[in-house]
Amino acid sequence: MTTYRYHEIDVFTATPLKGNPLAVVHDAEGLSDAAMQAFARWTNFSETTFLLPPTDPLADYRVRIFTPARELPFAGHPTLGSCHAWLAAGGTPKSAAQVVQQCGVGRVAIRRGGGRLAFAAPPLLRAGEVDAATLADLARSLRIPRDAIRAAQWVDNGPGWVAVLLGSRDELLALEPDFSNLNPPHIGAVAPCPAGHEAQFEVRAFIAGVGPTEDPVTGSLNASLGQWLIGAGLAPERYVAAQGTVLDRAGRVHVERVDGQVWVGGDCVEVVAGQVTL
Question: According to CATH, what is the number of the domain 126-259?
Answer without folding.
Answer: 3.10.310.10
